[in-house]
Amino acid sequence: MSFSVPPKPRIMSGGRNKIAIVASQFNEEYVEGLVESCLAELGELIPNARVDLIRVPGAFEIPLACKLVLENEECEAIVCLGVIIEGATAHADLVAESVTDSLLNLSVAYGKPVIHEVLLVKTHEQAKERCLEDNDLNRGRDAARAAAGMIEVCKELTRNAK
């Protein structure tokens, strides 16, 4: 487990960025903590951003919602938030692996940042640490920082390509 926190990107001004957050309803208490911390950090980093929140039933449904957003919306980044808690079977691992592979493939195929914070944790305590507490493990804040950073990287690379 890494305790290294990504640095806070510089605050973006000018322009109107659109960001979509696709969040699972399963394990709602934890996911809501991710959403709240992500929105708060995005509000600081990209104050003029329009953020659309899309709720889906579970983590497995996140990639399809992302694909539809990428096909039908103009957005600079998608942030994916969910919590999968391991149980007695391999189901959690299968879902997490499928979601991870799908999100990576969507990001590469569409050339847009798809930020993956669909957490696979072993215990409710781990979920609480990463979703509900204001600490260096808070993954909602990390997701916002990754989105802001990647929006800036993509703009810079696109600008340099012209």
From TrEMBL:
Task: Enumerate the active-site residues.
Answer: 91 (proton donor)
Q: Name one GO cellular component term.
A: riboflavin synthase complex
- Does this UniProt record's set of keywords contain Ribonucleoprotein? no
Q: What is its EC number?
A: 2.5.1.78
- Quote the record's binding site residues for (2S)-2-hydroxy-3-oxobutyl phosphate: 88-89, 130
Pathway info: Cofactor biosynthesis; riboflavin biosynthesis; riboflavin from 2-hydroxy-3-oxobutyl phosphate and 5-amino-6-(D-ribitylamino)uracil: step 1/2
Residues given in the record as 5-amino-6-(D-ribitylamino)uracil binding sites:
26, 59-61, 83-85, 116
GO BP: any one term: riboflavin biosynthetic process
Q: Per the record's keyword annotation, is Isomerase included, yes or no?
A: no
Protein name, entry field? 6,7-dimethyl-8-ribityllumazine synthase
